[in-house]
Structure formats: structure tokens, C-alpha cells
Write a structure and sequence with these properties.
About 15% of the residues lie in helices and about 45% in strands. The chain is mainly β. The strands form two sheets. It has a six-stranded mixed sheet, covered by helices on one side. It is globular.
Length: about 130
């Protein structure tokens, strides 16, 4: 039902203000060593987060242009940018679709802990 006053699902009402959701993705060095995953540094350099499993309930909250935060919590590294696109890249064993997270304007910033915990897939949407 689009029409006058329609607000997309990606907008959340917080304190009377509308804002887009933020996608947080985790790229800790431990996953590089243990599982051969892409490093924080490579993700920052290429602007592409490799193969993140993002559930449908998370997908409906994000869209191109929303904020993206790339983190390596153990190393206390953080970069922020904008979501450019999500490119499908297969599925997990339990059927959750994987995506390459393409980001633009990604910049290294001072580390801050995320406001909540990551799920076991290394994703958080707030």
C-alpha cells in the first residue's frame, strides 16, 4: 500500500526521528586464520565483504545507501561507509542466502564497539 505517508520498512522511528537501518559486518582476524575468510584489511581495500549470510528478516531492513559498519572487534578496527549493493553468492547449508556486500565511501574511523552483539553469521542490523 504505497501512497501518501508511506514509510519504507528500512526506515525506523527512533525518538520521533526517521533513520535508515545500519548493517554491521564482522571480519575478525581469527576467522581469517581458522576458516580462510577475507580479512578486515582486504575488505576495506576492495570495498567488498565476501559471502555474508543475511537472513530475509535482515534483508527487509537494509537497502542501497544505508550505512555499513565493518568491524574487527578483537583488533579494535572499524570502518564506515554506504551500502552499494548485495550480490547473491550461494547459500549456507541451512538455506540462508549468502551475499557479497559491496560498499562505497568506506573509511577507517576510530573504533567503537557495536551497540549489540553480532549473530553467529557475523551480521547485525540495527
Amino acid at each position: 500500500m504505497k501512497g501518501k505517508g508511506y514509510v519504507p520498512l528500512i526506515m525506523l522511528i527512533l525518538g520521533g526521528k526517521l533513520r535508515m537501518a545500519t548493517l554491521f559486518i564482522h571480519a575478525p582476524k581469527t576467522k581469517v586464520v581458522e576458516e580462510g575468510k577475507q580479512s578486515f584489511e582486504t575488505t576495506l581495500a576492495t570495498g567488498i565483504g565476501d559471502g555474508y549470510a543475511i537472513a530475509e528478516s535482515e534483508m527487509i531492513q537494509i537497502s542501497p545507501g544505508c550505512n555499513v559498519v565493518l568491524l574487527d572487534n578483537p583488533a579494535r578496527k572499524r570502518a564506515e561507509g554506504k551500502l552499494e549493493s548485495l550480490v547473491p553468492k550461494g547459500k549456507t547449508d541451512n538455506g540462508i542466502r549468502r551475499y557479497d556486500v559491496k560498499m562505497r565511501e568506506l573509511k577507517l574511523v576510530a573504533y567503537q564497539k557495536p551497540p549489540d552483539r553480532f549473530n553467529f553469521r557475523g551480521v547485525l542490523v540495527l
